[in-house]
Amino acid sequence: MPTTNEVAAIEVCNLTVRFGAGAGSVLAIEDVSFSLRAGEFASLIGPSGCGKTTILNLLTGLISEQPQDGVRVLGKTPRAGNPDIAYMLARDSLLPWRTALGNAAYGMEIRGMPKDEREQRAVALLKRVGLGEFVDAYPKALSHGMRQRCALARTFALQSPVFLMDEPFGALDAQTKLQLEDVLMDLWSTYQRTVVFVTHDLAEAVALSDRVIVMSARPGRVIADVPIELPRPRHVRELQKDAKFHELYALLWRLLEQGMDT
Amino acid sequence: MRQTSALTFAAHVLFAAAFFGLWELASRGGLLDPTFFARPSGIVSYLWKGFITDGKLWLELAYTLFGAAVSFVAGSISAVALGLLFMVLPRLHHAAEPYLTLLNAMPRIALAPLFLLWFGLGVGSKIAVGFSLTFFIVLSATVAGIRGVNCDYLVLSKALGATQQQVFFKVTLPSAVPVVFSGLRLGLIFALLGVVGAELIAAEHGLGQTLAYLQSTFSMDGVMGLLFLLAFLGLGVTTLMNRLERSLLDWQ
User: How many angstroms away from the CA of A60 is the closest CA of chain B?
Assistant: First the structure.
């Protein structure tokens, strides 16, 4: 039982989002509620257009014209630039005129961390994600996987307790994806962040998460909230051979299909 | 690698030798009339005289280069400044756009007589023509560069909490630099073009003026010599800008 004064890391309560007004308006999200404990890793899955990215954008405060009652990050209303949040996109968005080091340090630089400190952190994280030898390389010299590793370093270098990740590995090939998922697990187990992870890839959702929240087709509703009781630490590549992993995968598929039919 | 570039160089030398050799032979043999087509040996002796023996071409070259340099510097600085102002004040940009398009559509060389009237026979009118060409090229490059910023970079920076200043200095400006730079490269060539063009029409000094004079006196050796000189000048300027770009923007 949580104590009464414990604040959930993320709280989404009876969220309904409608885009546009009048007859042409679209009900994007209907009565969605979920909450995450600090340090929890939750994936959001659902068919395209079910509002997963909209929920993330609401949490980051990037959509400010929508009502945000019922959406709380560490007990506060979302606003753009909230230092409690680190955001990671599908495309790496590395700045091509900055080296790997400059990119890994970019978030900290924007948030005003002193140069020495941020560079030290950036180098440490680049080493951690396997880019120790590419600190001075420009993005053009890095492969897709390496670029996304650098983006991971940029994200984890931030001291934000809450991470919002929008299909960060969506553009990678299957092999590279597994490698990067392992890198993410390694970092996450060290840094203990609360993560909302949006993905289309069920295997990825099962392998990484403590919980998988399944949404229906538009209007997006939560149709299931599945705990993933696989032991940690996990090795994503090992999991591919695990029977329980495949059971959960099949369960999520069924739920997802039900959500598409309704 | 080295061997192939040496081979390429040898091929170029061979080609040039054959080309000028045949030209020389043809004009000596009476196939090409040197009154119309000049003659390589005549061109060399003209340039030799102009630059070495009596050195009169140096002054003309200096006039042209000075005019081009001033038009380029003034034109590009004011164009970049206006482009940045447009970014800060999009409404001003919107209001000014049709007028700028109209001005840019005017054939600048046709304006040269007007500029001559306003700014005199001297270098002033040459700078006006060069400026009017460079300015619009660099302006449209600056506007395109600022508009062309990758949206992901802006979203990421906004999500991180970047201020408008931070976005400008850390994202918009560095991302616009390569586009602005290609505008500058083109602008420099056009500054030279504008100045020489205006000199051709009427001037007291400059390579264009010399060219016009030689043409009217049927000194084809001189005309050809100056055309080669201008071509190499353009080539040199472009090479210089490319080198500069490669060393400044090595991340590309």
Answer: 7
